[in-house]
Structures are given as structure tokens and as C-alpha cells.
Design brief:
InterPro entries: AAA+_ATPase (IPR003593), P-loop_NTPase (IPR027417)
Number of domains: 3
Strand order of the largest sheet: 12-14-17-7-18
Number of strands: 20
Organism: Vibrio marisflavi CECT 7928
CATH architecture of the largest domain: 3-Layer(aba) Sandwich
Region (Disordered): 1-25
Domain AAA+ ATPase: 177-364
Protein name: AAA+ ATPase domain-containing protein
Distance between the termini: 15 Å
Strand content: 15-25%
Length: 454
């Protein structure tokens, strides 16, 4: 039960699992207090002075007539000034009437002061947030368990995995169950690689909100680091109403978030610091409708029991309680695939009660010799390198003498070292027994077992 370390997978066209969120046409439809939206508009005008309606509409992700209504209200309060473009291209203060030039808006002195107050309370700057209710409904509509994954789906998802036939029969039911997984086995057997490819079997995309309004605060959810947009820029700017959806949401691939030994408990709560003053969603909230991989279980700074106990309620009831920095608490959906990966014996890192709560415990093994050889040939070919036939005699002898399994991480790493040697010595692009022996020597420690397998 293993995986190959290959670079990139072919992505088919993804279709949204849920209906697109409709474009809100009123403040009631937005589900967020108008004062919150006005404060956000003030911050946008402070950050981007003399913006026009189009820029503000795109920046906040809401209808232009709602932007205009807020601007009108702010003008009545003397918070906003209007500038009219003259034929020579200069901006001058005007009444905001339609005289053929572009109308732009900027903050007055009192508006700037109010924007500073808004920034001090909450420095979020981006599309308007969605309500917690709308978020809850969308996450539930995009639950991976709604659409049953078939054997063909999983076979396609693991098409780049060597030894996949030993995985398909357990991975498929595990995905459909929606329950947490424990992937365990020696370092380098491909646990994390397989986990990151689980979502390829779903062939669906999801809507991720840029931010959620909860308990009087804006929580930033969308992260370019963790979410990959599918919507093309031209589609985002479309003016055809039937092609539009609520632009407070981004159409994305299902999220795949991975964290290892650097995980701390703070990363699992809403994060807010005096430095950035933006409320950031915890990792599991960013991973909703996707997969959250906790790699190297047992190597985090906190005790394993503390980390595992954090997941008991979410795993059992599919919701999570978040404590906000201001002392309030909100409940969010917990609808994702939670995967733990460890090189350690499960019995040594978790008590039987917790192990019973894990739906699937999947052990990974080294590759078989013919799979290992095929992987070497494929990776070498992809790097435009040849392999002398006798290389495998030397390679298999090294594995046998040092009692090292056929781990799928080794071909990629050792071929990389071999290529470095060939490039440095300006020899023909062929990996010889001598080169592979030298690569083994620098990759592993003196006992032949301390390499970079992972």
C-alpha cells in the first residue's frame, strides 16, 4: 500500500457540487448588518482613495446599487466626497450628477477619522462577509458524503500511485464514510502523498467564502495558500446577470490542507493578534468540504492526547465550537475528511478509546520489487536519464545489505542526487551502478538507514 512521488496530476474539469449562491439584491439578502458593510466601505475608500463604483463593487463583491445606496448615506453624514472627471482628465469636486465623466469617491476628514476607528477595531479589507447561517448551509450542501464515490473514481484519483490496487478497496469506503482516517506505516511509504490525492476522486468544486460574519466579527476564511480558485478573471467581471453568482464566494478546488510537527493548538482556534488585527479562521474551518491532513502525528509540541481530544466532539457530531478572542463562542460545521498520518505504532500514540473513533486505520507498506523498478524507470525517463540494466542488481543488493524497504520516496530523491553528480562531472546522462552507489552513500547515513525517507 504505497504511493509514488510524481510531479503533478492531470486535472479534469470540475463541476460545483452545490448550486451557485445567488446574487444578493438587497441588504436583507446579504444577511450582514448594514453598519458592518458601511464600515468596510469606509476602509476600502481609505485604502483606495478616489475609487469609482466599479472598483468598489468588485472589491466588496456586492451589487453596485447597494454600494451606491451606502455611498449616498455616507454623503449625507458628510463622510464621503464626490469627484467628477473633467474632459482634460483632472478630478474636481462635484455634485455627483451624471455629466459624462467618471464619478469617483473619497473620504472627507471626518470619514477618514471614522475609517481609522474601523481599522482599529478590525483590519479586514476584502469582499463583504457572508452570514454564519449562509456559510453553514453551503458547507452542508457541499458535504462529500452526498455524492457517493465509486471504484472508478478512486482508481482515477490514484492513477499515479504505484501499488494502488492494494489501496482502492479501503480508500473508497473511507471517503464515503466521512469519518476520520489514520494512515500509518514506515516513513517514505507514501501516506501523505496518497492523502493529498484522495480529493481527486470527487471531481467536484466548492464555494469558499472570503470571510464569515459571526458574533459581531469578520472572520477571514479564504486563503490563497490553502484555496485554489477555479473562476477565471473574465468570468468574475462578467456583466451578464445569469452568469453571475454571489462574489462574496470564490469557486475553488476542494481544499487540501496539510500540517505537520509545527501544528500548535492556537492554529485550531480563531487567530487574532495586536499586530495584524484581522481575525483568521482556524485550519479546520479553512479545510471544510475538503481534507485536513495532520502529518507526523506524535511529533507536535503538545501531548498527543491533547491534540486528539481536540477532535472528539467534531468527529462525533460534525460541528466544532470555536472560542473567539473576545470571549464569545460560535459553532461552525465540521464537514471534512480528517486524516492523521504517522510513522509511529498507533498503539503507542493513542489510547484504544480514541482509536475506536477513527473510522479507518490503513497501514502502508513498501513497494514490491517490480513496482519499485517501474517507478525508477518512470522517474528517470521523466528526467531524461538512462538506466544501465546492471543498476538494479546494485540497487537491490544495497537494499538487501542494509535492510531498507522499497520506499517510493527513494527513486525521486536518489535520481535527483544522481543527476547532480552527472551534471557536475559532465558525464553522459546515464545512471550507472557506480553513480547509484555514490548516491546511496550520500543519501543514507553510515548504517545505510538514515536517509531522508518521509
Amino acid at each position: 500500500m504505497t504511493a509514488a512521488y510524481q510531479e503533478g496530476l492531470h486535472r479534469e474539469e470540475l463541476t460545483p457540487q452545490a448550486d451557485a449562491p445567488k446574487v444578493p439584491t438587497s441588504f436583507e439578502d446579504l444577511g450582514v448588518p448594514k453598519v458592518v458593510l458601511e464600515n468596510l466601505l469606509l476602509k476600502h475608500l481609505s485604502a483606495y482613495p478616489k475609487s469609482d463604483i466599479l472598483h468598489l463593487t468588485r472589491s466588496m463583491g456586492i451589487n453596485s446599487h447597494l454600494i451606491e445606496e451606502m455611498l449616498s448615506n455616507l454623503r449625507k453624514k458628510s463622510k464621503v466626497e464626490v469627484f467628477q472627471a473633467s474632459p482634460d482628465g483632472f478630478l474636481s469636486q462635484g455634485s455627483g450628477g451624471n455629466s459624462g465623466g467618471a464619478v469617483r469617491y473619497a473620504l472627507s476628514e471626518s470619514g477618514l477619522q471614522e475609517a481609522d476607528v474601523a481599522f482599529a477595531k478590525d483590519a479586514y479589507l476584502g469582499p463583504a462577509p457572508v452570514s454564519l447561517t449562509d456559510y453553514d448551509e453551503m458547507v452542508k450542501a457541499q458535504d462529500v458524503r452526498i455524492r457517493v464515490v465509486t471504484k472508478d473514481d478512486v482508481t482515477h484519483a490514484l492513477s499515479e500511485v504505484y501499488g494502488a490496487e492494494r489501496l482502492i478497496g479501503v480508500i473508497g469506503p473511507a471517503i464515503n464514510s466521512g469519518r476520520a482516517l489514520l494512515l500509518y506505516g514506515d516513513a517514505g511509504t507514501g501516506k501523505t502523498f496518497v492523502a493529498t490525492r484522495i480529493l481527486n476522486s470527487l471531481n467536484t468544486s466548492v464555494y469558499i467564502p472570503y470571510a464569515v460574519y459571526a458574533a459581531g466579527n469578520i472572520i477571514k476564511v479564504f486563503s490563497p495558500q490553502h484555496h485554489k480558485k477555479l473562476t477565471a478573471p473574465d468570468d468574475e467581471n462578467s456583466f451578464v446577470f445569469k452568469e453571475q453568482f454571489d462574489r462574496r464566494w470564490a469557486l475553488c478546488e476542494r481544499p487540501s490542507i496539510q500540517v505537520g510537527g509545527e501544528l500548535t493548538m492556537d492554529m485550531l482556534e480563531v487567530n487574532h493578534t495586536e499586530h495584524n488585527r484581522v481575525w483568521i479562521a482556524p485550519l479546520q474551518m479553512m479545510a471544510n468540504n475538503g481534507i485536513f491532513i495532520i502529518d507526523d502525528l506524535g511529533r507536535q509540541p503538545m501531548p498527543v492526547d491533547t491534540l486528539l481530544n481536540r477532535w472528539i466532539v467534531p468527529m462525533e457530531y460534525f460541528f466544532d465550537h470555536l472560542a473567539l478572542p473576545n470571549g464569545q463562542q460560535v459553532t461552525i460545521p465540521f464537514i471534512l475528511t480528517l486524516a492523521f498520518s504517522s510513522n509511529l505504532d498507533p498503539e503507542s500514540i493513542a489510547d484504544p478509546a480514541f482509536l475506536r473513533r477513527l473510522g479507518y486505520k490503513i497501514q502502508f507498506y513498501p513497494l514490491k520489487d517490480h513496482e519499485y523498478r517501474a517507478l525508477w524507470e518512470k522517474i528517470a525517463g521523466g528526467r531524461q536519464l538512462n538506466l544501465e540494466e546492471s543498476v538494479f542488481d546494485t540497487l537491490f543488493d544495497l537494499h538487501s545489505r542494509h535492510s531498507v524497504g522499497f520506499y517510493p520516496c527513494l527513486p525521486k530523491d536518489m535520481i535527483g542526487i544522481s543527476r547532480d553528480i552527472i551534471a557536475f562531472e559532465e558525464t553522459p546522462p546515464t545512471i550507472t551502478p557506480e553513480i547509484v552507489s555514490r548516491a546511496w552513500e550520500v543519501y543514507f547515513t553510515a548504517d545505510g538507514k538514515g536517509g531522508g525517507a518521509r
